[in-house]
Amino acid sequence: MNIDVKNEKLKSWIREVAELCTPDDIYLCNGSKDEYRDMIDRLIKAGIAIPLEKRPNSYLFRSDPSDVARVEDNTYISTSSQAEAGPTNNWIAPDGLKKTMLDLYRGCMKGRTMYVIPFSMGPIGSPISKIGIEISDSPYVVVNMHIMTRVSSRVLELLGTDGDFIPCLHSVGAPLAPGQKDTKWPCAPIEKKYISHFPEENLIWSYGSGYGGNALLGKKCLALRIASAMARREGWMAEHMLILRLTSPEGKQYHIAAAFPSACGKTNLAMMQPSIAGWKCECIGDDIAWMKIGPDGRLYAINPENGFFGVAPGTSYSTNPMAMDTLKENVIFTNCALTDSGDVWWEGMDGDEPAHAIDWKGKDWTPESPADAAHANARFTAPAAQCPVICKDWEKPEGLPIDILIFGGRRTGVVPLVYEAFDWDHGVFLGATAASETTAANIGAVGNLRRDPFAMKPFCGYNMGDYFQHWFNMGEKLGSKAPRIFYVNWFRKSQDGKFLWPGFSDNSRVLKWMCERIDGRAGAQKTPIGLIPDEGSLDLGGLNISHENMKELMSINPEEWKAEIPDIEKHFSTFGNRLPEKLKKQFSEFIERLR
Ligand code: GTP
Ligand code: SPV
Ligand code: MN
Question: Of the residues 51, 108, 295, 404, which has the fewest C-beta atoms closer than 10 A?
Fold first, then answer.
């Protein structure tokens, strides 16, 4: 092994993995532009990366049709006892899972290069940052990690001889026999895919998939599943939240963090451009927030990521212009369609549909084709720094003080546009009972309503009952300095199946109301579910929305809410004695208010 690393733990880990996976080569990444260029050039030569004529330094990749999203059913939290992983996680005992996976890993990199990727989640050297090393046999992973995390040899310098890091082992699970021709997107069949986490030893083992959160291990695996377990031990929070700064016409800044489930609007809200005059929105992060209590007792958030891995379909100049402007160059696209003029395309993009394109499977496509041209979970990977509205303070090591926390989801019915929690503990109840219709971000059925507490169901690295308690504990520590908590639903539909709320830039109206609430300038009415805007306190100026639609959007039907009770009961019962007393109390008060 001819790899020059000084860190003892890293040296022996690389040797161990090389002996296990038997790659043809080992390559230590340095994160440089030249390295990126070189990797891309080789991917182009192999016909795997398709350069886009219309976008400088941008490339289209097509995955295997079986490997298009996260695989929640194959994702494991492997703690010594099942109770520690809790009812929301798949669990296999560490010994058994490791044995199964070691058998899969044995010889799995034959015919491939093993890349060692040193990366930092959070600015390199910042006290809140965490260092990970991903070992992967996927060059696609290397180039994506370059954008999504801070890959650099400086990370190794920082580690020194005895610094600690989070080992993240990844293989696509497709060894090559001598002379065997590689496929363009090697991966293993679903029954051999394992996305495993060992939170008690800060270890990640992923096998069989090359896509998104299954393979870019700094993101959901490290920054949420492992980090949430660390955060509980250490008294901070790792959340599936966007972070934004809203500035009022008077120049007052508000920092907002919002948790919506996958493909439910985080990237869009994070870069939203307010439709109301004088208000300004800047993006700090679009998917993950790490939050700690600062010296002044307030909650400070950082975005540990370096890029956006965003949902392409639906992204357009009319919905998310700042994302569109972020995508002009230096972008990796995955599973989008390719137009005849050498650009990417997806459903919902501005302008007319192309008369002809190559779909995400590489087949001819026309508007008459029965299937979509882009996969519903087609994604862009883009550097955060090139977002035109990236906040100048987005990499501040101490983070930014959060004023407002928002929970939400995709609900066709029942849930109004916005309501406010009575207090922190009620806010925790709102987070804990959040429900949303499933999306294409996970392999599985789309559109099924499920409880997705705090948008963390697939991402909490320990018992979710304990996670609820951790939220209560954080509230106690924050006391009067705690952010105010709100709940939103941009996705309510009318009887004829149309969205009642225009969404996107008009969501600024809802955020404005929240800011005015915390400043004591907007009124609210008490309802059984929370506080809703006083008539006239939501700024609808210049918005073409009928009174009837607005009424339907804000309506709270007690019978519909009563119908939620059995499901919440069922949801809560899964946590047994780990369900916090405070949550039981919130639930009985909720039932009482509905009587
Ligand atoms: P992940 O990256 O999977 O975590 O998703 P996300 O939460 O960042 O979701 P994103 O912002 O990418 O939005 C997903 C889909 O919801 C896109 O197709 C959007 O166009 C759509 N969407 C986002 N915001 C709104 C909204 O305010 N109203 C409506 N109707 N659709 C929205
Ligand atoms: C999500 O599914 O919430 C994502 C995409 O942000 S992935 O990186 O695949 O997890
Ligand atoms: Mn996400």
Answer: 295
Evaluate whether 259 touches 408 at the Cβ level (below 8 Å).
yes
267 CB near ligand 1 (under 6 Å): yes
Position 60 in a domain: no
Q: Which of 29, 221, 264, 281 is catalytic?
A: 264
57 torsion bin: left (phi>0), alpha (psi -120 to 50), beta (else)? left
How many other C-beta atoms lie within 10 A of the C-beta of residue 224? 25
Domain coverage including residue 327: 308-386
Q: Which long-range contacts (CB under 8 A, 24 or more apart) does 50-56 make?
A: 50/338, 52/333, 52/342, 52/343, 52/344, 53/341, 53/342, 53/343, 54/341, 54/342, 54/343, 55/327, 55/328, 55/329, 55/331, 55/343, 55/344, 56/328, 56/329, 56/330
How is residue 465 written in tokens? 């009952």
For the stretch 120-178, pLDDT in tens is 999 998 888 999 999 999 999 999 999 999 999 999 999 999 999 999 999 999 999 99
CATH number of the domain enclosing 522: 3.90.228.20
Q: What is the pLDDT of residues 552-570, one digit of tens each?
A: 999 999 999 999 999 999 9
Indicate if 257 and 343 belong to the same structural domain.
no
Q: Which residue's CA is minimally distant from atom 4 of ligand 2?
A: 262
The angle that helices 33-45 and 139-148 make with each other, rounded to 10 degrees, is 140
Closest listed residue to residue 284, CA positions, set 265, 298, 261, 304? 304
Q: From the CA of 255, how far away is ligand 3's center (Å)?
A: 19
Tell me: do 329 and 377 sit in the same domain: yes
Domain boundary among 234, 261, 276: 234
pTM of the model: 0.98
Check pLDDT > 70 for residue 210: yes
- Of 72, 242, 309, 311, which is best to mutate to test ligand 1, by the most ligand atoms within 8 angstroms of its C-beta? 311
Q: Is residue 545 part of a domain?
A: yes
β-strand partners of 299: 293
Q: Which CATH number does the domain housing residue 94 bear?
A: 3.40.449.10
The verdict on whether 264 is a catalytic residue reads yes
Can you spell out the DSSP letters for 290-339?
Answer: EEEE-TTS-EEEE---SEEEEE-TT--TTT-HHHHHHTSSS-EEES-EEE
Domain end: 330, 355, 386, which one?
386
The answer to whether position 46 is within a domain reads no
Type and span of the H or E element at 488: strand 484-488
Residues 379 and 446 in one domain: no
The ligand 1 atom at the shortest distance from the C-alpha of residue 503 is 27
In a domain, residue 90? The reply is yes
- Number of domains into which the chain is organized: 3
* Model confidence at 2: pLDDT above 70: no
Report which protein residue has its CA nearest ligand 2's atom 3: 262
Structure tokens at 165: 């890091």
Same domain, 328 and 465: no
Distance CA 492, CA 318 (A): 20
Assess whether 371 and 448 both reside in one domain: no
Q: Phi first, then psi: what are they for 270, rounded to 5°? A: -60, -30
